[in-house]
Write a structure and sequence with these properties.
By secondary structure, the chain is of the alpha/beta class. It contains 13 helices and 13 strands. The chain folds into three domains: 128 residues, 3-Layer(aba) Sandwich (Rossmann fold); 93 residues, HUPs (Rossmann fold); 136 residues, 2-Layer Sandwich (Nucleotidyltransferase, domain 5), CATH 3.30.420. A hairpin with a 5-residue loop joins β10 and β11.
């Protein structure tokens, strides 16, 4: 790796936010900033020669914007032919950090989608930062700790970032007492957290660390902790499934990814999910809200059912939410109880991704098999050697 920060741009407002974050990171690291746009040749025949000037102008304007934000940072620019992930993976080999926007409209569309984000995280040679347009201020760095070997790298990176930023670390370990081995008390997860952080305080004496052992699901705990954080390290699984729990589509994202943006990106990348079954009803929790978001779903011929948020009038289908919530919790428990989703023991980013995919495939195969063999419970895996 060199003293280099790379940012992917495509002309969207999201990538502009990424440029601003990236130049700040370059400034903080005293590094060079490289602004890159990935261009894939059209699949269909072209009857006119491609004019490269709009692409060159796009990346040049992004580089100029970076220069205006931090004139002391050396900025270079490039238009590179290839798929966004392949281009960024190649760029990451010489970089300390790759920065992208959370949503794009061209060379970097859908950076938070399952295949793209997991591929970049698994194959990139340096850390990847995904920037939302509403950037966080001067909050702490939230570090999710699970005690795994792959988590060691996250711990090291979090301490290095905290030292660079002059930020506090909130080291969070989520645990579920009901699923802990018999006789396990609160002191056990506290001990795991202390052991995972051992030795770092001596190496980074100026970094303040707050330990936080929280009872609850990892997803909910990290979401709650992320609200005041400037950085969060972790992955979230977004799953769209049938009422029987059959997976339809999914995404692995960063811990602070917006559920609504992720869902819209999934539907953009897999339009056949809508085209082949028009007039579908989508059931979501309270986080799937917003007039613009619901209008976008309506334009896709999707009806949204969700509980009313505080201050809202009662919504259609409200009498169904209690039993539906039980169904959703039951599907979650299948992943965590029968499939040990939160105890995947992945040792590398690629290993984590593969193990999550294995569990999704196992659930899909079991439901399909149970349906075709007339089993009374579709989502039961206990009869199989898993």
């Amino acid at each position: 790796m060199g003293n280099l920060v790379v940012v992917g741009v495509d002309g969207s407002s999201s990538s502009l936010s990424a440029v601003e974050a990236a130049v700040g990171e370059a400034q903080r690291r005293r590094a060079e900033l490289r602004v890159v746009h990935a261009f894939s040749w059209p699949v269909r025949p072209m009857y006119a020669q491609l004019d490269p000037s709009p692409l060159n102008r796009l990346v040049h304007e992004a580089a100029q914007h970076a220069q205006s934000v931090a004139p002391e940072v050396e900025v270079t620019e490039a238009v590179v032919t290839g798929h966004a992930v392949a281009v960024l993976e190649a760029e990451s080999r010489a970089a300390d950090l790759v920065v992208v926007g959370s949503r794009g409209m061209g060379g970097f569309i859908g950076m938070l989608l399952g295949s793209t984000a997991v591929s970049l995280a698994a194959h990139g040679q340096c850390p990847v930062m995904v920037v939302r347009e509403e950037q966080a201020g001067a909050g702490p760095i939230v570090l999710g700790v699970d005690g795994s070997p792959v988590g060691e790298k996250a711990v090291d990176f979090a301490f290095a970032e905290a030292a660079l930023r002059g930020a506090e670390i909130v080291a969070v370990h989520a645990w579920l007492p009901d699923y802990a081995p018999l006789g396990t008390g609160p002191e056990s997860p506290e001990r795991l957290l202390a052991q995972a952080l051992a030795g770092r305080t001596e190496r980074y004496p100026d970094v303040r660390v707050r330990h936080d052992v929280v009872g609850g699901e990892t997803r909910e705990v990290l979401i709650a902790a992320s609200k005041t954080a400037q950085l969060v390290w972790g992955l979230r699984l977004h799953l769209v499934c049938t009422l029987h729990g059959l997976p339809v589509t999914f995404a692995l994202t960063g811990a602070k990814a917006d559920e609504r943006e992720t869902l819209l990106d999934l539907l953009t990348v897999e339009p056949q999910l809508i085209d082949e079954r028009p007039g579908q009803t989508l059931i979501g929790d309270k986080n799937y809200f917003g007039r613009e978001f619901e209008q976008q779903l309506a334009e896709l011929d999707i009806r949204l059912l969700r509980p009313a948020r505080k201050g809202e009038a009662e919504r259609a289908g409200s009498q169904l939410f209690k039993p539906l919530r039980q169904v959703i919790e039951s599907i979650n428990e299948t992943f965590k109880g029968q499939l040990d989703l939160e105890r995947h023991r992945g040792r590398t980013p690629a290993g984590v991704a593969v193990r999550v995919l294995q569990r999704i495939l196992a659930l899909t195969a079991a439901i399909w098999h149970n349906d075709h063999t007339g089993q009374p419970i579709m989502r039961a895996l206990t009869a199989y050697d898993h």
